[in-house]
Amino acid sequence: MPLNHLATELLLHIFYSCQSVADVLSLASSCRRFHRVFNTSNKLQILTGAAQAEFSPFHDIIQLVTQNSSQPAHLVREAPISFALLKQIVQIGHVARKWETIYPLKKWKTDYENRRSLTDGECFRLRRAVYRLWLYHRAFHNRLYDRFSRSLRHIVLERAQLLHNWSTIELAETEDLRLVIDDVVQNHICPSNGTIQRKFRKRFPENNHQLTFNIHLNYPSASSSMFEKPTNHFEQYFHTAHPTNFVDNAAKYRSKFRNDLFHDPGYEGWGDEIPHYYVVQDMMKLDPGQVLWLRENAPLKEQVETFVLSLGEWFQNNGETFGETLEWVMKERGDDVEELRSAISDRQVGIVRD
């Protein structure tokens, strides 16, 4: 018997068995009967079930999409599912799924012969860490928390309250992800002068050109017409129903290390050790979605600088606070944060546990 001749109840059961939103939409577009069954009062329930299977844990992602400045971030929120809320869940969930691919590349960066894909349980922990770190960024890395207020005791306690919602093992998972994102920022988005030099020599060993590095961070001039009204392209990208990359991988490779009269690869460096450290600390205020967008769409330093300008003046010279807040919480629990990070490095705790 053809599938489209089955009873509606059986077809609904097939829809509810789908493990991803894409599977549901593909099934609904396969024929008119499936399309009619899908576009009934069960449509929201079907999509919600698929989103739960694909992007769980749902509780943590709802905390993220419902966070706003009208209430403390550590309060647990419940929200009725709607199509508007589900759209945000799917967009953020897709970002988390992309980190499932990036994470193994960085986690086994030196131990690459043992690199593997993540198990279902590890993917679940990774997505949970993405949502929780993103919630922290959305709550505390914004223009309401400038560099002058970051060390005030009531602000530190407010940040610590959110981290106290999670166990030490769960905090280790979030810190594990943060360290991976730190590696992406250091080596891909804002590489140091030394990193640029090393990669250029590795890729072009026969080229004897001496790279020219900037000794200052040359943010674009506000008077430049090109940067008079910086646009946050990430917002446009993130709120597109079907986001696409604007720069293909081959173009990224050519542009970053292009060596001609109009471009010196040294221009892509973000300073030596000390200046580069502070740049990375600033950039680590970006949430996982913004870091991913820059990794995919901003191969050149000037593109990253333009994005930073679009965020406002609060962003510059104002490092991230998750690391120091984690240290505060660990001390309150009688633990040592460096021991925790050492255990993460040894894969005793974190997303991947040997």
Question: How would you describe what is shown here?
Answer:
Keywords: Signal. This is F-box domain protein. Residues 1-22 form the signal peptide. Helix 7 crosses helix 9 and helix 8 packs across helix 16 (322-332). Mean pLDDT is 87; it is low at 215-234 and 236-247. The chain has helices spanning 8-16, 21-28, 32-38, 43-55, 58-65, 83-107, 120-140, 153-163, 168-189, 193-203, 233-238, 249-256, 273-283, 288-297, 301-311, 322-332, 337-345. With 354 residues, the chain is mainly alpha-helical. It has 2 domains: 1-55, no CATH class; 90-345, no CATH class. The longest helix has 25 residues, at 83-107. The chain starts with 7 loop residues before the first helix and ends in a 9-residue tail after the last helix. Helix content is 57%, strand content 0%.
Which descriptors would you attach to this protein?
2 domains; single chain; signal; globular; mainly alpha; 17 helices; 57% helix; F-box domain protein; 354 residues
Give the SSE layout:
Layout: H1 8-16, H2 21-28, H3 32-38, H4 43-55, H5 58-65, H6 83-107, H7 120-140, H8 153-163, H9 168-189, H10 193-203, H11 233-238, H12 249-256, H13 273-283, H14 288-297, H15 301-311, H16 322-332, H17 337-345
